[in-house]
Design a protein that fits this description.
single chain; 81 residues
Length: 81
């Protein structure tokens, strides 16, 4: 978070408070953005789930699948269908 807080002229604590005031943590917001990217990749490209996971910065398909389920309510493989 230090990279982002300095980029926007906030200290870490102020940036963290800003996110919590909106109902999410900084990490949750980043995960949400990554899942949005995954939905774009799954919808527009002919990429398999492994490639989507790597492109979105996830270490494994399992991690992507669990976070995708949390945010989207279904697994990436079900989203493709």
């Amino acid at each position: 978070m230090p990279l982002y807080s300095s980029k926007f002229s906030f200290n870490d604590r102020s940036l963290s408070r800003l996110f919590y005031a909106k109902g999410a943590s900084f990490i949750e917001y980043l995960q949400y953005l990554r899942i949005l990217k995954c939905t774009e990749l799954l919808s527009e490209n002919n990429m398999n789930i492994n490639m989507v996971a790597v492109s979105a910065g996830y270490e494994s398909v399992t991690t992507l699948s669990n976070i995708f389920l949390h945010f989207a309510g279904l697994r990436p493989s079900d989203y493709i269908k």
